[in-house]
Amino acid sequence: MPDPFSTEPDAPTTLPAGAEAQLAQQSFLSSVFGWMFLGLALTAGIAAYVAASTDMLDWLEENPFAYLGMFLGMIGLVAVISMGINKISFSVAIFLFALFAAVNGFIFAAILEAYTTASIAASFFTAAGMFGGMATYGYVTKRDLSSMGSILFMGLIGVIIGSVVNIFWANSILYWFVTFAGVIVFCGLTAYDMQKIKRIGASGLQGDDLRKASILGALSLYLDFINLFLFMLRIFGSARS
Hints:
Elements lengths: L16 H36 L1 H9 L2 H20 L5 H25 L2 H24 L7 H22 L2 H30 L5 H30 L5
Helix pairs in contact: 1-4, 1-7, 1-8, 3-4, 4-8, 5-7, 5-8, 6-7, 7-8
């Protein structure tokens, strides 16, 4: 073992293999959360800018199909990033992720206008606390959460179908059932995705493959947090008078 107080020049210092793997994993996780927070910041910035622009809000109100187009575009971007991550370059992956976050900002501008600042803040901090708790659980738990993937996916499909049906039915019981089911599903997905991201960081990926994996991981966590926030807003949100 090298003497930490040695004054000899060029004393060789090497990290154990396990320590190197842990540092690589931590670096990957830092990259994932860095991209996620940048995406959230971009969404929030554009939402605030659009919400403060009367002309842009008026245009969006006069063209309601623009929201549908943006929503379909976001689904397409998620599909391209998720299914085409191995075929696109790292720079393209960054561009598509940034474009997704930016388009989402336009949709969130309507939310900033519809709800009070206090209820938005309460929903945000509640969602942030739940997200942080479930992400921590996914990282530290020894339990294999991979078996939850299919169950959570079926739950997600159920939440989507229930939400669409309730657009036409407008049933309050179904509304609250879908809302609390959505909270449970995205809490579970946060823990599941976090454990999956942790394993990717320890898998030995390098170069562009690792960098693109960080974008894909950031997208997964971004979606988990955003959806948790939206469901919290349905619970705590108060409409502007």
